[in-house]
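As a next step, we paired sequence with structure tokens, yielding the entry below.
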Amino acid sequence: MKAQRTRSQERILQLLKNVKRAISAQDLYIKLRKSNQNMGLATVYRSLEALKLQGEIQVRTLPNGESVYSSIHQDQHHLTCVNCGNSIPIAECPVHDLEHQLEQSHHFKVYYHTLEFFGVCDRCQLAQDA
């Protein structure tokens, strides 16, 4: 049985679906305030945590430690530069079959997975070589 969502959770989930990209809790809070949806920052964080635990949204931690949130459209995978922090989404998913195998063998319901490679992007490589 799915957990009953609060109005705050519904508003946040709808905004994440409309934004169609990962966004920080602070940026989410600012967008809500600008659209006259008064909600405290603590409520934003509580709602994001509840939605994450329900498997409704996914969280990604950037190299600088900041968490960004997005609705679960599909698996998200990235190449992330440790120098400039730029993240390049990649479409390939080499672990999709593994996810299904793990669900079967461990009787574990996977909500989503992320795959992230860390390195140095082409622009930073050029700057280092200069």
In short: The domain at 74-130 is CATH 3.30.1490.190 (Dna Ligase; domain 1). The longest strand covers residues 76-81.
